[in-house]
Amino acid sequence: MIYENRAPPVFMVFDQENRNRYAMGTMLPGITPERFIKAGYIKRADTLEALAVEAGIDPAGLQQTIARFNTMAAAGRDEDFHKGDSAFDRYAGDPAHKPNPCLGPLAKAPFHAMQIQAGDLGTKGGLLTNAHDRFCAKTALSFPDSMQPATVRPVWLAISIRGQAVPSARP
Predict the structure, then answer these.
(1) Which long-range contacts (CB under 8 A, 24 or more apart) does 138-143 make?
(2) Which of 5, 101, 125, 140 is deepest in the core (most CB within 10 A)?
(3) How far is CA 25 from CA 32, 82, 118, 130, in A?
(4) DSSP classification of residue 4
(5) What is the pLDDT of residues 71-129, one digit of tens each?
């Protein structure tokens, strides 16, 4: 359960090149507000080892992970999560970045880490289900009890500035 907070912390790690080129959350490209650093929302350090210590991450594990990621970024192939394999990924990536618009090496200091908290995507609707993934209300879209899927995997929709709705990542 995402609300029980039993999983170890997860961090998004990025370098200064990423900060210079791309917006992240409420941060514009090139601007990392000092108040975010002071509040602990963003961790920042001049080396990956110092960043790991600051964030409470195993330094050797972070170094190995980044080295492997940088090798994949240089080759343009994400063997772990397949970023950039789909047309949807490539559309959302940076078309000027080669060989893969969704992958770039982490090489330019300072390095940054932002803890990711699991949560639900805020939606403007969808099928209401209970803890056993059973539909709770009869609607024009509901299935007869005999046809309800064992696990509901809806396509979540959210209001977007890019149009009336945008699909989330694949379930």
Answers:
(1) none
(2) 101
(3) 11, 23, 15, 31
(4) G
(5) 999 999 999 999 999 998 899 899 999 999 999 999 999 999 999 876 655 555 556 66
111-116 and 10-15 strand pairing: antiparallel
Q: Which residue has the tokens 């080669």?
A: 98
Of 18, 33, 9, 10, the C-alpha closest to 111 is: 18
Q: How far apart are CA 34 and CA 42, in angstroms?
A: 9
For 159, list phi and psi in degrees, rounded to 5: -65, 135
Backbone angles phi, psi at 13, to 5 degrees: -110, 135
Please, which residues have CB within 8 angstroms of residue 167's CB and are 6 or more apart in sequence?
155, 156, 157
Entry pTM: 0.67
The answer to whether 165 and 159 have CB atoms below 8 angstroms apart is yes
